[in-house]
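Hi support team,

I submitted a single chain yesterday and got back a structure, but I'm not sure I'm reading the token output correctly. Could someone confirm the output below corresponds to the sequence I sent? I've pasted both exactly as they appear in my results page.

Thanks,
R.
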Amino acid sequence: MAQSISLSSPAKTHAPGISASSLKTLGTLILLLLALPLNASLVLVALLLKSLRPQNVTTEKPKNILISGGKMTKALQLARSFHNAGHRVILLEAHKYWLTGHRFSSAVNKFYTVEAPEKDPEGYIQSLVDIVEKENIDVYVPVCSPVASYYDSLAKKALAQCEVIHCDAEMTQMLDDKYAFAQTAQSFGLSVPKSFKITDPEQVINFDFSQEKRKYILKSIPYDSVRRLDLTKLPCDTPEATAAFVRSLPISSEKPWIMQEFIPGKEYCTHSTVRNGLITLHCCCESSAFQVNYENVDNPKIFEWVSRFVKDLGITGQVSFDFIEAEDGNIYAIECNPRTHSAITMFYNHPGVADAYLGTGNNLAEPIQPKSTSKPTYWTYHEVWRLFNTRSWSDFVYRFKIITHGKDAIFSWQDPLPFLMNPHWQIFLLLIQNLQKNRGWIRIDFNIGKLVELGGD
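Hi R., thanks for writing in. Yes, this is the structure output for that exact sequence:
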């Protein structure tokens, strides 16, 4: 006999075998089902309108473009930008995310899945080579995860038959290493917070904080999708509390951390596409720990910092930086991620993105930035969740204005299917898989297109 499950029941009355995480998953699935008719209707209207306004875009020299990271919105945005410029787009993703809703985009000509690079590096690189040869790829644009960025650098040598818009392996390792990056920037005379490499908890426990003007925070040098949001200030209230906190972290010589000076101020994030040390595309916006809102701001100091850094290194690739602007107006680079930033969604209405990546047109002389008409981008499901979790009327009005004055980063009247398939296919099936395995998750990231899990990718 089937058991009935009440989502409002207290934990102690859960039906046997039903965990709290499973109830959380079931509740989320129900909410997605309730939203399905509204989203399906919107997408149907968009498809009908699109059929009445067919668009044929051509370019004199169309190229075949391979884009990885197919589950992520930033990959979808790049696919649309290249497609709108008349190029042919092939989308790529790991086998785990074969169900990405972005494969249904009208900007995507073909979709492939490959083994995750960390599981089979040689097989991953060979798969890239095979796809490049089969599809006659001219340019490969990796939209990679923190883990995959190094493997895409390794693949660059094997993909000599096409251009790869990505840093070399040694450069990627240095930029991804928060401590090595800080040391490199400092050697160029660029401002960064005071930093220490930590390979043993005792280094922090025995550190003399009494000589420091500011507090410190600890960050894992290898990417950690969960702990990266922990901004516990050190030292804690007592030496015992500091020791307990530090010893709770997986710090070792194999998994080093960085202890970095915490500088109060306004945080910014950037994305820059760079060719031979020159920025061809750049954007900057205010940042936060869980970044799902992007609005372009003009900060000449940050642009100058990035320009000097990439020029001194002669970078070709995509680089994203996090900055702090201190109360005195000075800026400090916190870290660099050698890969695409989701802030690129702000270029949704800019016709020059493809040229900026390909180095064609006039973009090498003057980097493009989001248009003045570009609205702030957001993800509807994140905003709706925040809207209904506000604690005051002023907060409610603020969040409502974000929705009414901005633009959903996935929805497009010319390409509406991903907006339906991302939550109601991609995320829905990931939740079903987690339910079957009775596995918990921390949050849904509709931007990245995955469930954030402890020990996940």
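A quick pointer for reading it: Confidence is low (pLDDT under 50) at residues 1-15. Let us know if anything else looks off.

Best,
Support desk
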